[in-house]
From TrEMBL:
<dbReference type="Pfam" id="PF07714">
    <property type="entry name" value="PK_Tyr_Ser-Thr"/>
</dbReference>
<dbReference type="InterPro" id="IPR011009">
    <property type="entry name" value="Kinase-like_dom_sf"/>
</dbReference>
<feature type="binding site">
    <location>
        <position position="26"/>
    </location>
    <ligand>
        <name>ATP</name>
    </ligand>
</feature>
<keyword id="KW-0808">Transferase</keyword>
<comment type="similarity">
    <text>Belongs to the protein kinase superfamily.</text>
</comment>
<protein>
    <recommendedName>
        <fullName>Protein kinase domain-containing protein</fullName>
    </recommendedName>
</protein>
<dbReference type="InterPro" id="IPR017441">
    <property type="entry name" value="Protein_kinase_ATP_BS"/>
</dbReference>
<keyword id="KW-0418">Kinase</keyword>
<dbReference type="GO" id="GO:0004674">
    <property type="term" value="F:protein serine/threonine kinase activity"/>
</dbReference>
<dbReference type="InterPro" id="IPR051681">
    <property type="entry name" value="Ser/Thr_Kinases-Pseudokinases"/>
</dbReference>
<keyword id="KW-0547">Nucleotide-binding</keyword>
<dbReference type="GO" id="GO:0005524">
    <property type="term" value="F:ATP binding"/>
</dbReference>
<keyword id="KW-0067">ATP-binding</keyword>
<feature type="binding site">
    <location>
        <position position="124"/>
    </location>
    <ligand>
        <name>Mg(2+)</name>
    </ligand>
</feature>
<feature type="region of interest" description="Disordered">
    <location>
        <begin position="257"/>
        <end position="282"/>
    </location>
</feature>
<keyword id="KW-0460">Magnesium</keyword>
<feature type="domain" description="Protein kinase">
    <location>
        <begin position="1"/>
        <end position="251"/>
    </location>
</feature>
Length: 282
């Protein structure tokens, strides 16, 4: 196995499996501490989610072992995360931002009838060799029993979290829509949201109490700026669904890829053409 990276949860390795070729193996550090028990529950939740879904823009699960001390998940091997990509190129152009939005929205629209991710951020968006985005890391995701789901505070990453996630015991899939808006803003600007804020609680005050949002630069295309602002709406009911975001970005991509329309003939050209036609007939 080849070591890829590590974090608080454990380590990730590249391995070769007969039936699947190269895969990513996520090993978890498990002990008898309370933190390790919570980590194990998070991994069980992730396996539960991934075992039920199949979508081109959701990371693929190959297998898992949840019996300590051998706790690991085997997933498709991907090139890196959106975080890695932004660190390397700083920001995305308009077309790349729309493409990313379309792919993430497509995955979320598929998930949202039954699952809310709750921790959408660049680190949890993985990229394959072709540059396609895949939603990953479902450790704090929850299955919906109704329109809203009961949740606990403290789940997610404050810089990308919706205001209702800070102060409500019930949230909907529209919390993921807010997070998507923050990701799109970061892709266009190349800036991490609220990077000037040192304490997470300050983000809670800025977003949840003062209703503030990051400033959208003047060079942001109007259609993208409008989409981001709608995703950021303080009222979850006024935010678009991810199905709507997918349709909108698909249409905008189609407009970019469509060949330019031929210039319309001016009235003078049309008149000259008519006169030449009359002279020819005469």
């Amino acid at each position: 196995m080849r070591f890829i990276g590590s974090g608080a949860f454990g380590s990730v390795y590249e391995a070769l499996v007969a039936d699947h070729g190269k895969v990513a193996v996520k090993l978890v550090n498990i002990s008898h501490s309370h933190t390790s028990k919570a980590r194990l529950e998070s991994f069980k939740r992730e396996v539960d989610v991934l075992s039920r879904v199949k979508h081109a823009n959701v990371v693929k699960l190959h297998g898992a072992c949840m019996v300590p001390p051998n706790v690991f998940i085997v997933m498709e091997l991907l090139e890196g995360s959106l975080r890695d990509k932004l660190d390397a190129c700083r920001r995305l152009d308009y077309r790349a931002t729309l493409k990313l939005a379309n792919e993430i929205a497509s995955a979320l629209a598929y998930l949202h009838p039954s699952i809310v991710h709750r921790d959408l951020k660049p680190q949890n968006i993985l990229m394959d060799a072709s540059g396609a985005a895949k939603v990953a890391d479902f450790g704090v995701a929850k299955f919906k029993q109704s329109t809203y789901l009961n949740t606990t505070r403290g789940n997610g990453t404050p810089a990308y979290m919706a205001p209702e996630s800070f102060g409500s015991d019930k949230i909907s899939e529209k919390a993921d829509v807010f997070s998507l808006g923050m990701i799109l803003w970061e892709c266009w600007t190349g800036e991490v949201p609220w990077k000037e804020v040192q304490i997470p609680f300050q983000v809670v005050m800025l977003v949840g109490v003062e209703k503030r949002r990051p400033e959208i630069p003047e060079d942001c295309p109007k259609q993208l700026a409008s989409l981001i602002q709608r995703c950021w709406d303080d009222d979850p009911h006024r935010r678009p669904s991810c199905a709507e975001v997918e349709r909108r970005t698909r249409l905008l991509l189609h407009e970019l890829d469509a060949p330019p329309a031929p210039p319309a003939a001016s009235a003078a050209n049309a008149s000259n053409a008519a006169e030449e036609s009359q002279q020819t007939i005469a």
